[in-house]
Amino acid sequence: MNSKFIFKFPMAGKNRCRFSNGWKHFFQCLETHDAIGIKHRLTTPSKVWFSGRTLRSGRILRSTSHSLLSTICLSLLLTGCAVFQPRVPLELTELPRPARPAPPAFRAVQSVVFSFYGRTMTGIGVLSLDREARTFELSCMTPMGTKLFDLRMADDQPDVLFALPFFTEKEGFAEAVARDIARVYFDPDPPQISRAFRKGETLVIESRTNDINVEYSYEGTPPELMGKRFIQGRALEAQIEYLQTFEQDGFRCIGEAKLKSKIFGYQLTIRTKELNIIHEMVTE
User: Fold this and answer.
1) Contacts of 186 (CB under 8 A, 6+ apart)
2) Cα–Cα distance for residue pair 244/226, rounded to 1 Å
3) Cβ atoms within 10 A of the Cβ of 53, count?
């Protein structure tokens, strides 16, 4: 049986065609099938030619051809295998030892970029941080000198000393920024190992603390920290990428980090412009 046929549809005027919702669905199907390579061509303004398909009630249904299924299966085979990487469980008895430790205390001048619900704000920040005491102070202002916020963290509790309405319009946003900055710099190593696995070339160590599961991702030899993921239950709260690091005085310092908050839907990019390590606070 020949599955080719010509279907004619009415025209309204010389250059216009009025059609119902069913016709709209028909053209959407036509465009969709064209995008994935189904053979069809428009012969005249009032004729459409199909090969191996049946048109019924404004929808394109399969008749005899299996090319669509073959195309989808081949695409999944070629792309899926390249993307999917299985998790290989590992038995680790000790934490990975990076070549350079993180500095215990420092002062840094940074550029900070916030992207929040389609709005972007850029600032210059001065960060004083004591990682061992788990405290920091961050003051940020615009390039024109307008203060954006003053944040402080002590005893794992954020304190907002000042913030523009940009950071206070949504309740808890400024406090969340302080917690996320602490997540970037505190705990460069997992406090403990809950589970470990390898995914491709990436070593992942899970550490659970205070109902939060933190995934540390390492790459290279010796292993270098590339990112963190903070998960509560099954919900991803935030993820951090360490895009650039540099060595100073034997310490591994963060040059650029990007944080994405899934709770408040904002993105924070931090770039270090100048950093001074506080050596007198280093304990033997």
Assistant:
1) 131, 134
2) 9
3) 21
Residue partners of 180: CB distance under 8 A and separation at least 6: 238, 259, 261, 268
Say which amino acid occupies 110.
Answer: Q
Tokens of residue 225, six digits: 């920290």
- Count the neighbouring beta carbons within 10 Å of the beta carbon of residue 228: 22
Quick check: 34 pLDDT over 50?
A: no
Residue 53 banded pLDDT, cuts 50, 70, 90: very low
Alpha-carbon gap, residue 77 to 156, rounded angstroms = 47
Residue 279 has pLDDT above 80, yes or no: no
Q: Is the pLDDT of residue 66 over 90?
A: no
Answer yes or no: are the C-beta atoms of 42 and 8 closer than 8 Å.
Answer: no
Per-residue pLDDT tens for 81-129?
545 678 888 888 788 888 899 999 999 999 999 998 788 999 999 999 9
Inter-residue contact 148 to 123 (CB < 8 Å): yes
d(CA 37, CA 34): 5
152 band by pLDDT with thresholds 50, 70 and 90: very high
Tokens matching residue 239: 């993820």
Backbone phi, psi, residue 267, to 5°: -125, 135
Alpha helices in the chain (DSSP H): 21-35, 67-75, 81-83, 165-168, 173-185
Structure tokens at 190: 């997992």
- Residue 268 main-chain phi, psi, to 5 deg: -125, 125
Let me know: does 275 contact 107? Beta carbons within 8 Å. yes
